[in-house]
Amino acid sequence: MTKKNLERSILSIEDNMRVNAQTGEMLLFYQFDCPHCGTLNVSAKNYKKEIVLCSHTGCRKIIIIANYQDIA
User: Model confidence over 7-65: pLDDT tens digits?
Assistant: First the structure.
């Protein structure tokens, strides 16, 4: 695999790991769907992280929260 193809495939994999989280001003949590298995993940705003693991025991894949800075 050439360097250009390798870079392209790495960028594609990273894009497949990104999701947008949903929340509301009055809510104490945010939620997002796993792009790998589709499981709805819920996490407390107090413990927000940019990179999380899917909560489904059969998946446990890395998920990147694309709108991490917007979760207040």
Answer: 555 556 666 788 988 898 888 999 999 999 999 999 999 988 899 999 999 999 999 99
Give the global pTM. Answer: 0.72
- Whole-angstrom distance, CA of residue 46 vs CA of residue 18: 21
Distance (Å, rounded) from C-alpha 10 to C-alpha 38? 22
Dist. CA 3–CA 47, nearest whole Å: 37
DSSP letters, 9-29, are: HHHHHHHHHEE--B--TT-SE
**Residue 30: Cβ within 10 Å count:** 21
Q: Are 58 and 37 in contact (CB under 8 A)?
A: yes
